[in-house]
Amino acid sequence: MIKYFSLLLMALVCLGYQKEKPTSPTRPNIIFIMTDDHAYQAISAYESKLLQTPNIDRIAREGMRFDRAFVTNSICSPSRAVILTGKFSHLNGLRDNVQVFDSSQQTFPKLLQQAGYQTALFGKWHLKSTPTGFDNWQVLPGQGHYYNPDFRTPNGVVNKKGYVTDLVTDMTIGWLDSLRSDNKPFMVMCHHKAPHREWMPAQNHLTDFKDQPLPEPETLFDSYKNRGNAAKQAEMRISDHMGLTNDNKIKPEIATSLGKTSFMSWYDEAFQLNYQRMSDTEKAAWNAVYDPINQDFEKNTPSGDQLIRWKYQRYMQDYLACIKSVDENVGRLLDYLEKSGLAENTLVIYTSDQGFYLGEHGWFDKRFMYEESFRTPLLVRWPGKTKPGSVNTQLVQNLDLAETMLESAGVSIPADMQGKSLVPILTGASVPWRDALYYQYFEYPGIHAVKRHYGVRTDRYKLIHFYYDIDEWEMYDLESDPQEMNNIYDDPAYKKPRKKLLKKLDALQVQYQDSEALRQEILEHDLQRKE
Fold first, then answer.
1. How far from the centroid of its chain's Cα atoms is residue 423's Cα?
2. CA 474 to chain centre
3. 93 close to 84: Cβ distance less than 8 angstroms
4. Are strands 118-124 and 136-140 parallel, antiparallel or unpaired?
5. How far apart are CA 126 and CA 165, in angstroms?
6. Which 8-state DSSP code applies to residue 449?
7. Going by DSSP bridges, is the β-strand pair 29-35/346-352 parallel, antiparallel, or unpaired?
8. Element (H, E) at 454
């Protein structure tokens, strides 16, 4: 009896020991939500005065809001390539929206897949090549359409009925709910078309901002005084380059009869093709909202500054209405995570492929290194790891996202990736961080005529060099001039900080393997490609 008692005691001790042994941490699931052209100024978590985004705000409230998140190249396709590869545009090979992404190269989805993650992509790809590194994918061809869009799939193109933001979320939730395996972690990219131009709201949001006067930015009537030629010559002014038809939804026959033809007529044709994708019921609902707008415009046609104000209001009404659908669908996805029990072990990232001008400097679109397009929203929720309601003000970039997702999953970060994992920041660790950011833009000559440039941004200053058909430098003191209205490059009072910025710029170009010789080689190649 004593013998048996001793054996039982030993067994219990062993069981107790096993129970106390630390269990290996469960690798987190990852949901990467990205919109297209969603300005941080249009998210209420960033104190927007334009609209409320309660569901997107929830990610910030339950996680971390990054107040100094930026891109490396403020244009759609290159931004996506940077995120996938963790490398600047001059190294990953995709510098503009015309090129095709080499999807055979190393990307973070492939590395996660190799490490045992299930991977999926739904929505906007915009890289022309076939997606690789994904177990499941359905992507929009090119920019895609808002209504009843087509999707590229491994089995060919399929058409889906509905509104694109709803459909992308449906596919994401559908995959999470029934197609993935329960015994593996997952990474899914839910990538929305909205709120990209041509800003066509969903049926249930057509009138959300129709009769709501929206505040104008202080710089709506910017004259570009004290700036260089790049700002003056860019073709993205609301006054001159925003189309009445494609952007403001005025019928072509009305615009033509008033002598107000669009700056880019092909964009008018693109809008008409989008309109034709609607069902008769959808067209009827659309016309019920936009026909009175057309009739009023024809009867009371504004001119001069009043036309600029009218175009701004029309643009913003549709742009913000598209975001309402995004916010609504972010809420659907977050609710699904809660109901399915996945929320506690899922890292959720919300960002945009770049920032966007919401009338600042009289502009729409992006591309420049000026703050509104350079800066992007970044909100991250990681239960148990990231303190709810935290705010970070360090200089981070979309270059860091691949490394962040890899480290969060316990996957080694390749040495040739150029960003820094945000995991230490998200988990509250105190680590040395960068004191400056590097930027580059290549798509010129091209649409919107934003000249080629590169530059450096620190906590306080920004230095930009525009090149190719001009050779101009701009420098801004972001502390005293946050709207970047006064170029101080030649101001003697800023001689010392200018010298430091030039030195930092040289150091960053060495760090990121960029150079004057490489830029010249790229320029010659790009010009030959466009001939």
1. 20
2. 25
3. no
4. parallel
5. 16
6. G
7. parallel
8. strand 453-457
| The 437-441 sheet, strands edge to edge | 437-441, 453-457, 461-466, 472-477
Which helix (H) or strand (E) is 268 found in, with range?
A: helix 265-276
Model confidence over 216-239: pLDDT tens digits? 999 999 999 999 999 999 999 999
Residue 332 buriedness (CB in 10 A; 0-12 / 13-18 / 19+): middle
d(CA 466, CA 129): 31
* Band (444; pLDDT cuts 50, 70, 90): very high
Q: Phi-psi region for residue 259, left (φ > 0), alpha (ψ -120 to 50) or beta?
A: left
Among 465, 378, 386, residue whose Cα is nearest residue 32: 378
Listed residue (7, 32, 324) closest to 172, CA to CA: 32
> What 3-state class would DSSP assign to 22?
coil
- Give residue for tokens 């959808």: 282
Closest CA to 465 of 498, 495, 493: 498
Q: What is the pLDDT of residue 22?
A: 33
Are the CB atoms for 489 and 462 separated by under 8 Å? no
pLDDT in tens, 120-132: 999 999 999 999 9
Tokens found for residue 277: 């994708």
Full set of structural domains in the chain with CATH: 29-199+321-435 (3.40.720.10), 440-530 (3.30.1120.10)
Specify the pLDDT at position 266.
62
Cβ-count burial of 158 within 10 angstroms (0-12 exposed, 13-18 middle, 19+ buried)?
Answer: exposed
Q: Which residues pair with 3 in a beta bridge?
A: none
Instruction: Report the alpha-carbon distance of residue 384 to residue 343 in Å, rounded.
Output: 11
List, for residues 20-64, the tens digit of each pLDDT value.
333 345 899 999 999 999 999 999 999 999 999 999 999 999 999
